[in-house]
Design goal:
It contains four helices and two strands; from the N terminus they run H-H-H-H-E-E. The protein is mainly alpha-helical.
Length: 78
């Protein structure tokens, strides 16, 4: 699940609670924090994720790029 999907789930949870303020109160977080997460200004942390039944995972992706002076299959880069 990506952050966009988490925001969608949070929106639905807020709708079911009746408002952002009601969901925030039930989750023991500030309404401003909920609003910031929904608006994309902050990432959802554990206090938002746990009441939704979620937890954050971090996947590291390593990529490589050619730099000056490196070796490629066509020889040494200039």
């Amino acid at each position: 699940m990506n952050v966009s999907q988490v925001r969608t789930l949070l929106r639905k949870a807020c709708d079911l609670a009746g408002s952002q303020a009601a969901w925030a109160r039930d989750a023991n977080v500030s309404r401003a924090y909920v609003s910031d997460v929904l608006g994309g200004y902050r990432m959802p942390g554990a206090s938002i994720l746990a009441p939704l039944g979620l937890e954050a995972t971090v996947n590291r992706v390593v990529t490589y790029r050619v730099t000056r002076g490196g070796y490629t299959n066509k020889g040494v880069n200039q």
